[in-house]
Amino acid sequence: MTKKDYYEILGISKTASDTEIKSAYRKKARAHHPDVDKSADAEKKFKEINEAYQVLSDQQKREAYDRFGHDAFGGARRGTPGGFSYQYGPGVDVNFDFGGFADPFEIFEQFFGARSPFGGSARRGPRTGADLHYEITIPFEQAAFGTEKNIEIPRHETCSECSGSGAEKGSKPVICPTCQGKGRVQQTAQSIFGNFVTARTCPTCGGSGEIVDKKCPLCKGSGRIRSHKETTIRIPAGVDDGDTIRFQSLGEAGEKGGGYGDLYLTVRVVPHKDFKRRGYDIYYEQPISFTQAAVGGVVEVPTLDGNVKLKIPESTQTGTEFRLRGKGIKHDSSRGDEFVQVKVITPKNLSSKQKEALKELEK
Ligand SMILES: [Zn+2]
Ligand SMILES: [Zn+2]
Fold first, then answer.
1. Are residues 142 and 232 in the same domain?
2. Of 251, 270, 289, which closes a domain?
């Protein structure tokens, strides 16, 4: 997946000043804060905006980004998660460590002085679980009319014993010793530009500032257990090969009682032996005899609802298309059409008598 350009995300030019970057961030971050923006991809956008700001507002990171693009922050160069290495000359490897990206809500908090200035939920709690991506293959007809499927999703679920807290019954969480309850730790990194300090989410408590004293015996304190979810999902009529459907909260449970991520299901549609699909219309090729083409007749053509009779008018040319309204792919509350293209089969192995007759016809 190619990442969006940080300048583009903030809607600024490559030569933007620090003030311009700040003001662009202020506008964008407020507009897409998940407490305000209720669209499905708000959280993703918010994350992007904060990531872009985190890099572009830091002179060293910005310089690295201008030179190396997204490679500067992990990605292409493996082995240095959250950082990158650069070969300065023969035998001179310089390792950068930017400490990964901080929690977008932390950046926001540092900038605005509040986690959410909108009076919405505070986000100090545990992180939502990861999204899951699966593929499902369905027959052509099920894509045309929609279907329901029973699926089993292997995933982490919130621990039933401790309801996700990770604490043994009767025990209480205590202040995290790593971050002293702050939820973040500072890290000093050395680079050729000098030392700089980055703040990152505390690895011990995951940002909650608390750890459990006595761990839940079932989930060993993580608040979730490996399990699977059986559920019935509805695949809407009209889906096409390669479409991805999002099912809310069918992803992984977050640790320490964090909510569920989403499930993204990419649909593969098995091609039909007779029909080709274009959009919501389907196409079928119907062979007809030379005589049917010349004098007309009735043929049976297949549709998704079974065979129907199609009247061929006299003098029909090969390649003529007939439209069967409403015999295509269902979608929303309507249906596409079926197009039947006739193909005239030229007669073979004619007797001399038949040939004579045709020659007569030609005149
Ligand atoms: Zn548990
Ligand atoms: Zn901690």
1. yes
2. 270
